[in-house]
C-alpha cells in the first residue's frame, strides 16, 4: 500500500479522466472535472504548513484535514453551485481510487459541502411553441415511413397537459385512464413509488380516445384491453425508453422547433412546460406539487419563483419603462429639492 500511497495526484487525475472518457461525456464535462480537481490539488500543495510543487503531490497528502482546508479556501470567492460541483468531482475521483485499491477510503464524507443547487426549469422556449408542436404532429406527414399521428399526439399531450415523466408514460396502462366523461383522470405511478391522480380535460380525453380508436383498427380490439400497456410502437409492442425518446425527438424535427428545446431536457421539457404554465396561470406551489408528484414543496415553489423572475425581467425590458426612467433624472423633472411637494402628490 505504501507504494500506492506515494503515487502522484496529477498522474491519478489523468487516469481518472481517461476512465471517465469511456462514458462519452461532453468535452465541457471533462474540462470541468480537470479544472475542479486541479484547483483543489493546487491548494493542498500550496498550503503554508507543508508547501511542495503540485507535480510532486502524493495521494497520501490528501487527507480529510487537508481537503477541508483546501475547500474552505476554494469556497471563499465562489458560488455555492461551483463548490458543490467541485465536491462532486472529488467524491467521484476518490470513489474511483477506492475501487482501484489506491486508497483505503473516501475522505470526502468528512468535507462539508453546500446543498445541491435546485435545477432550473427547462420549458420549451417561445410563447406559442407547444401549440406549434401539437399542430405539426397532428398532421398526417407522408414523409414518415410509418406515420401514426394519433399516437404521437397522445404522447405529447400527456406530457404537455398532464406533466408526466418518461418513466410514468411508459408505465401507463389503458386502464390508467378512468372516470366518467367530464371527470376523467389518469392514475400515475410516480417517482419513488408515489401514486397520484391527474385530472384530464375533455380535449386531452378526446386525443386519447382517437389514439385508442386508431390502435384498435391497427391491432384489433384485444390490443386496447384495460391491462394493456397504453403506449405502443408501430408493431403494437410496448414502447421502450429509447423508442419514446426517439419519437419525441422526431416530433421536434417535424415541427421545426429543435432550436427551442433546451439542451439536456428533451422529453422533460414538455413536463417543465406544463409546470411553468401552471405557475404562470396562478397555480400555487401545493397544487403544482400534487399535479407533478414532487416529493417536496420546494421543488414546486421553484417554478413559481422562476416564473416571477421571468415576468419581472420581461417588464424590465419594456422600452416604455426605460423611457420613463429618463424622465426621473433631476434635469428632466426639475426636482433639485422639491421632494416634499412630490410626496404630497
UniProtKB/TrEMBL annotation:
<dbReference type="Pfam" id="PF00589">
    <property type="entry name" value="Phage_integrase"/>
</dbReference>
<feature type="compositionally biased region" description="Gly residues">
    <location>
        <begin position="335"/>
        <end position="345"/>
    </location>
</feature>
<feature type="region of interest" description="Disordered">
    <location>
        <begin position="326"/>
        <end position="345"/>
    </location>
</feature>
<dbReference type="InterPro" id="IPR044068">
    <property type="entry name" value="CB"/>
</dbReference>
<keyword id="KW-0238">DNA-binding</keyword>
<dbReference type="GO" id="GO:0015074">
    <property type="term" value="P:DNA integration"/>
</dbReference>
<dbReference type="InterPro" id="IPR002104">
    <property type="entry name" value="Integrase_catalytic"/>
</dbReference>
<dbReference type="InterPro" id="IPR004107">
    <property type="entry name" value="Integrase_SAM-like_N"/>
</dbReference>
<protein>
    <submittedName>
        <fullName>Integrase</fullName>
    </submittedName>
</protein>
<dbReference type="InterPro" id="IPR011010">
    <property type="entry name" value="DNA_brk_join_enz"/>
</dbReference>
<dbReference type="InterPro" id="IPR010998">
    <property type="entry name" value="Integrase_recombinase_N"/>
</dbReference>
<dbReference type="Pfam" id="PF02899">
    <property type="entry name" value="Phage_int_SAM_1"/>
</dbReference>
<dbReference type="GO" id="GO:0003677">
    <property type="term" value="F:DNA binding"/>
</dbReference>
<dbReference type="InterPro" id="IPR013762">
    <property type="entry name" value="Integrase-like_cat_sf"/>
</dbReference>
<comment type="similarity">
    <text>Belongs to the 'phage' integrase family.</text>
</comment>
<dbReference type="GO" id="GO:0006310">
    <property type="term" value="P:DNA recombination"/>
</dbReference>
<feature type="domain" description="Core-binding (CB)">
    <location>
        <begin position="7"/>
        <end position="98"/>
    </location>
</feature>
<keyword id="KW-0229">DNA integration</keyword>
<dbReference type="InterPro" id="IPR050090">
    <property type="entry name" value="Tyrosine_recombinase_XerCD"/>
</dbReference>
<keyword id="KW-0233">DNA recombination</keyword>
<feature type="domain" description="Tyr recombinase">
    <location>
        <begin position="119"/>
        <end position="316"/>
    </location>
</feature>
